[in-house]
Design brief:
mainly alpha; about 0% strand; globular
Length: about 230
């Protein structure tokens, strides 16, 4: 049992590190404000999820996101102990991924974002706007995840559906906040960027968790209606 839990937590750590390194790395190396860079970053995050889903999905479910784990926990699909283990592993993975990206960007002498791909509230008009957009985007993302993972018959396409959903929420969110929908993804880069990214970090922890909780509540209503 302990070995099984370790495998799950290790998978979550590795998966989150890969997501942060590849997703934020695309922003760092390409920039995200030009049309080409915008789409490239959105697809980098989405494709990272697709890749990880087919690598670690059968080990841990490939949450790689505390907001996902919260929604799954609230939907009673995982224990409280596993929820805590997953979140800790995800945060560690995000810090590792961001540290690797810091090294690589330093060697290359490139950071098109200036903040290691951190999320910021300025593009959304301030804290209120950023909080709202992150709640909305996370709600859409998590509602999709809850729906597509609830049916075993959809397991073969779940990773692709989730990855593509992450792409389209990034397409909307990148100009506004850089798109978090994932507290771990925000924590890792902000730790190394410091400054405003660290000051704004609480928004990108709280808002995705609120969006995830709302998605779990709404999805529960859907399930009641279909009984």
């Amino acid at each position: 049992m302990a070995n099984s839990s370790f495998r799950k937590y290790l998978a979550e750590m590795v998966g989150t590190a890969g997501l942060v390194f590849m997703g934020c790395g695309s922003a760092v190396l390409l920039g995200a404000q030009s049309p080409g860079g915008h789409l490239a970053v959105a697809f980098a995050f989405g494709l990272s999820i697709v890749a990880m889903a087919y690598v670690i999905g059968n080990v841990s479910g490939c949450h790689v996101n505390p907001a996902v784990s919260l929604a799954i926990f609230l939907d009673k699909r995982m224990s409280g102990a596993d929820f805590c283990g997953y979140v800790i592993a995800q945060i560690i993975g995000a810090v590792v991924g961001a540290a690797l990206l810091k090294v690589v960007s330093g060697l290359a002498g490139v950071d098109q974002t200036g903040t290691l791909g951190s999320n910021l509230v300025a593009g959304a008009g301030g804290i209120g706007g950023a909080f709202l957009i992150e709640v909305i985007l996370t709600f859409i993302f998590l509602l999709t995840i809850l729906g597509v993972t609830a049916d075993a018959n959809k397991s073969q396409i779940a990773g692709l559906v989730i990855g593509l959903t992450l792409v389209f929420v990034h397409i909307v969110g990148i100009p506004l906040t850089g798109t978090s929908v994932n507290p771990a993804r925000s924590i890792g880069p902000a730790i190394f960027a410091g400054g405003q990214a660290l000051k704004d970090l609480w928004v990108f922890i709280a808002a995705p968790l609120v969006g995830a909780a709302l998605a779990a509540c709404v999805y529960k209503l859907f399930k009641v209606k279909t009984v």
